[in-house]
TrEMBL record:
<dbReference type="InterPro" id="IPR004474">
    <property type="entry name" value="LytR_CpsA_psr"/>
</dbReference>
<keyword id="KW-0812">Transmembrane</keyword>
<keyword id="KW-0472">Membrane</keyword>
<protein>
    <submittedName>
        <fullName>LCP family protein required for cell wall assembly</fullName>
    </submittedName>
</protein>
<feature type="region of interest" description="Disordered">
    <location>
        <begin position="46"/>
        <end position="67"/>
    </location>
</feature>
<feature type="compositionally biased region" description="Low complexity">
    <location>
        <begin position="53"/>
        <end position="67"/>
    </location>
</feature>
<keyword id="KW-1133">Transmembrane helix</keyword>
<dbReference type="Pfam" id="PF03816">
    <property type="entry name" value="LytR_cpsA_psr"/>
</dbReference>
<feature type="transmembrane region" description="Helical">
    <location>
        <begin position="7"/>
        <end position="26"/>
    </location>
</feature>
<feature type="domain" description="Cell envelope-related transcriptional attenuator">
    <location>
        <begin position="93"/>
        <end position="244"/>
    </location>
</feature>
<comment type="similarity">
    <text>Belongs to the LytR/CpsA/Psr (LCP) family.</text>
</comment>
<dbReference type="InterPro" id="IPR050922">
    <property type="entry name" value="LytR/CpsA/Psr_CW_biosynth"/>
</dbReference>
Length: 328
């Protein structure tokens, strides 16, 4: 009898300890606690020396709340999302460039989409397309150098500190969408997928990895060209977040975190960071994720790399400053 009581007491103590430990871990992983317990990493700061100054058309003002020395102490930070166009081991340009300003205290994310054709000044090159930064860095020093070059180019353009980044390629993106069991998207208008030779109708539908990839790549059939493609990329990102929060995926979330890290080529987010960001997403709604594009106009200039005129996107300083003052 005494032995049974002793065993019951031990089991009860273990159960209470288990619950307490679980609660403590859950508490520590809450975004407002997790990202404020240690200094935010500072990957890059704007570099305004003579050889890497930002385009004159971009105002010299930081994004709201960016920087690890902010009085917010980690309640707001900047995360760069890079999608590269490489398959296998070939050198690659950045096909997707999005800067996410994450405000933990407000449970909001502001996505800033940067056209890959944006004209910026790169060190030892001159004014060229921002998506050339990655391939030039990669040629000089491999994958990590390509990442660093892209981080610096965006930091200079937006004049902000960047704290985190994630980078994936076509294969990783397609595989992760299939891992989720496909992705549900709501298209505001039909989209003709040029290379798939089909048209996705407007409304709700479920896409596999291949069609999801072709959707975020499509621009030829879109009336707004690359601007339309950026909107679809932002739509896909929102859809992925929504899918991760479905009950069927929450149950296998630890495994999905590991799978995501396998499909990413590179990131400085830890497992705990990813889980904490997921908890943040649980408290967000459709209005919590705002999306803007770097405003500007198209133009043609001689490119120092290919030695011929290329199409560029020229940022509009005044319009960008107005958007930043309202949304960032």
């Amino acid at each position: 009898m005494r032995r049974s009581r002793k065993i019951l007491l031990i089991l009860s103590s273990v159960f209470i300890l288990f619950i307490a430990t679980g609660y403590l871990i859950y508490y520590k992983l809450q975004p407002i606690h997790h990202f404020s317990t240690a200094p935010l990493p500072i990957l890059v700061k704007p570099n305004h020396d003579a050889d890497s100054e930002p385009s004159p058309s971009v105002p010299d003002s930081s994004l709201s709340g960016s920087g690890a020395t902010s009085t917010l102490k980690g309640s707001a930070f900047n995360l760069l999302i890079l999608g590269i166009d490489a398959r296998d081991t070939e050198n690659s340009r950045t096909d997707v460039i999005m800067l996410a300003h994450v405000d933990i205290a407000q449970s909001t994310v502001h996505l800033i989409s940067i056209p890959r054709d944006t004209r910026v000044k790169l060190p030892q090159v001159g004014y060229t397309k921002i998506n050339h930064a990655h391939v030039l860095g990669e040629i000089q020093g491999g994958n990590q150098a390509g990442t660093q070059a892209s981080l610096q180019a965006v930091s200079n353009l937006c004049n902000c500190t960047i704290n985190y980044y994630v980078k994936t390629n076509f294969v990783g993106f397609e595989h992760f969408i299939n891992t989720l069991g496909g992705i549900n998207v709501t298209l505001p208008a039909p989209v003709k997928l040029t290379y798939a030779h089909i048209t996705l109708p407007a409304g709700d539908q479920k896409l596999n990895g291949d069609l999801a990839l072709k959707l975020v790549q499509e621009r030829h059939s879109l009336g707004e060209g690359d601007n339309g493609r950026q909107e679809n990329q932002a739509l896909m990102l929102k859809s992925i977040v929504h899918s991760l929060l479905q009950p069927s995926n929450i149950a296998r979330f630890p495994w999905l975190v590991q799978q995501a890290k396998q499909d990413l080529l590179d990131t400085n987010l830890t497992d705990a960071d990813i889980i904490s960001l997921s908890l943040l997403a649980k408290n967000m709604n459709a209005q919590s994720i705002q999306y803007v594009q770097i405003p500007g106009h198209s133009g043609k200039f001689m490119d120092p790399l290919v030695h011929k005129e290329l199409y560029y996107w020229i940022p509009n300083a005044a319009a960008w400053a107005e958007i930043r003052s309202k949304d960032l």
